[in-house]
Specification:
Blueprint: H1 13-17, H2 20-32, E1 34-35, E2 38-39, E3 56-57, E4 60-62, E5 81-89, E6 97-99, E7 103-104, H3 105-111, H4 114-123, E8 127-133, H5 140-143, H6 147-161, E9 165-169, H7 178-193, E10 202-210, E11 213-214, H8 216-227, E12 232-238, H9 249-270, H10 278-281, E13 284-289, E14 291-292, E15 299-300, H11 302-314, E16 319-323, H12 335-338, H13 355-360, E17 397-398, E18 403-406, E19 409-413, E20 417-418, E21 433-438, E22 464-465, E23 470-473, E24 476-480, E25 484-485, E26 501-503
Parallel strand pairs: 3-16, 4-5, 5-8, 8-9, 9-10, 10-12, 12-13, 13-16
Antiparallel strand pairs: 1-2, 5-6, 6-7, 10-11, 14-15, 17-20, 18-19, 19-21, 22-25, 23-24, 24-26
Helix pairs in contact: 2-8, 6-7, 9-11
């Protein structure tokens, strides 16, 4: 993209100060014991563990960003865990989940191969979570005013992608939306009470923090879920965008988490969960924006990352995330080029490829997310007739973005190539092909454009054709590139460069631009 995405992890001190009604609400929650008319005595809303598990690292992935991040390839996500964002309301249908407002769930499967890529990721034993909300676009809870529909949306997304870890990123205007806050809690509670897909889900709240911890409106988000008996796995605080230059980001991040822990302890005590000492920290997470933050004067270096990782490990934090895996790369070949750059595809600091991931990957915890048994063999569909894209041909030439099927798996060309077998890929960083995932049971070839008989003459084996002549072959239109006799137009689908024909329709797997 030519323009930087607004960071999905952003808040300002000004925005928090304007939410004075929320300060009153939190005071009522903590002191008066009433939230939305639901008693505050809540047990089992937070699952306490006698022995805190190891901290897990799961970077966020901006699913709709360009270039596409290939998180599904093991070597391109060392953590083998990812939080995919963001599911929001469709601009045309308030109760329709969409990825970033661009793709419906079905469209993301087709255009981004998202379900296929998640399936590939999970088949290696990796875990994925889906994040709802974010800084940009309209959250489902704000747009969809029917609680039952909202509950169905959350459950359907979890079911469609076979995930049981859901992240709710509430920030910006959504923090002050009291009606949406209540609907979100009620929708999650409804599905939980019915024993739906969310009943055993790991539900995380991701909230903006400051160097004083969470603001009043953020605390109210936590209280709303606890008061509705929603099984909350934990609170993930975004330690970034402080609104002023920070000389020591590692210390600022640690202060944010520590202050949040003190606030969370008060809420836990109020709600009767009895989370004390180290056990409390096992329900906390932190997300940092690696490299150059979009708030001037804030830079998280690799050294800061190492300090934060050590802090998370020693305090038994449940989770560490970064914004984002898409940005975990250097911006250029020289320090003058890379330092200070704000981009969606690089960090803006001196680092190697995946440098931050390799630092945080020393955290050994696991995010249990997939409903599929980890490492279970895939039910591959190797029937060529079911391939959703053309079968790879050794003599064909493929341009960047072209998708093919080889031995039951889908691959995408990273650059122009011919004769390079996708299945022979050993190093995804140097191969012209990247693995997207398996052909799924139920897949079928996409249809191509056909036109009515008689529009052009039917191709014949004895016909003589000159450059520019148009014919129909099996209902599909082709145009001759040069003189030929007896050459089937379908040869254009095998070797476009050598064939004397070019199709007058879009090929399955062909780049759209």
């Amino acid at each position: 993209m030519s323009e930087l995405h607004p960071s999905p992890h952003r808040t300002t001190a000004t925005a928090r100060r304007r939410l004075s009604p929320w300060r009153v609400l939190v005071a009522l929650i903590l002191l008066g014991g009433v939230a939305y008319g639901v008693p505050l005595v809540v047990h089992d809303s937070l699952t306490a563990a006698a022995e805190p598990p190891a901290t897990f690292f799961a970077p966020y992935v901006d699913v709709t960003a360009t270039p596409t991040d290939n998180f599904q390839v093991a070597s391109m996500d060392p953590a083998h865990q990812a939080v995919l964002g963001f599911v929001v309301a469709s601009p045309t249908d308030p109760c329709q989940p969409s990825w970033g407002g661009y793709y419906s769930v079905a469209a993301a499967d087709q255009s981004l191969d998202l379900r296929l890529r998640i399936t590939q990721f999970e088949s290696t034993g990796a875990s994925v979570a889906v994040s709802f909300g974010g800084q940009a676009n309209t959250p489902l809870a704000s747009a969809c005013t029917v609680t039952a529909s909202l509950a169905r949306d959350y459950a359907e997304v979890a079911r469609h992608y076979h995930v049981s870890t859901l992240d709710f990123d509430v920030e910006g205007a959504a923090l002050g939306d009291l009606a949406a806050t209540q609907r979100r809690a009620e929708a999650l509670a409804v599905d939980t009470a019915k024993g739906g897909p969310l009943a055993k889900a790991h539900i995380w709240l991701t909230l903006p923090g400051s160097r004083e911890g969470l603001g009043a409106s953020a605390l109210a988000q936590v209280a709303s879920l606890l008061s509705h008996h929603v099984p909350l796995a934990g609170v993930n605080v975004m330690a970034m965008n402080y609104g002023q230059p920070v000389t020591d980001m590692a210390t600022a991040i640690e202060t944010t988490v520590t202050d949040t822990a003190a606030q969370f302890q008060k809420l836990a005590n109020q709600y009767g969960d009895g989370l004390l000492g180290a056990n409390l920290w096992s329900h906390l997470g932190v997300t940092v924006m690696i490299g150059q933050n979009d708030s001037p004067g804030e830079v998280v270096t690799l050294a800061d990352a190492s300090t934060v990782a050590g802090f998370a490990r020693s305090h038994h934090l449940a989770r560490v995330s970064v914004w984002s895996l898409n940005r975990d790369a250097p911006c250029g070949t020289s320090a003058a080029v890379e330092n200070g750059v704000l981009s969606t595809s690089c960090s803006g600091v001196t680092q190697g490829v995946l440098g931050f991931s390799r630092v945080f990957d020393r955290l050994t915890g696991t995010m249990t997310s997939a409903t599929r048994v980890a490492g279970a063999p895939l039910a591959l569909d190797t029937n060529p007739a079911d391939a959703p894209y053309p079968l790879w041909q050794p003599l064909a030439a493929y341009v960047q973005g072209y998708k093919v099927v080889r031995s039951g798996y889908v691959y995408e060309a990273r650059w122009y190539n011919s004769g390079s077998d996708p299945a022979a890929t050993t190093d995804p960083w140097t191969s012209p092909w990247v693995l997207l995932g398996p052909v799924l049971v139920g897949d079928h070839p996409p249809t191509t454009t056909t036109i009515p008989a008689g529009t052009y003459p039917e191709w014949t084996t004895t016909g003589t054709y000159s450059g520019g002549d148009r014919v129909l072959y099996r209902g599909e239109p082709y145009q001759a590139k040069w003189y030929n006799v007896g050459v089937r137009p379908s040869t254009a689908l095998v070797d476009a460069a050598a064939s004397p024909w070019r199709p007058l329709f879009s090929l399955p797997g062909e780049p759209t631009s």
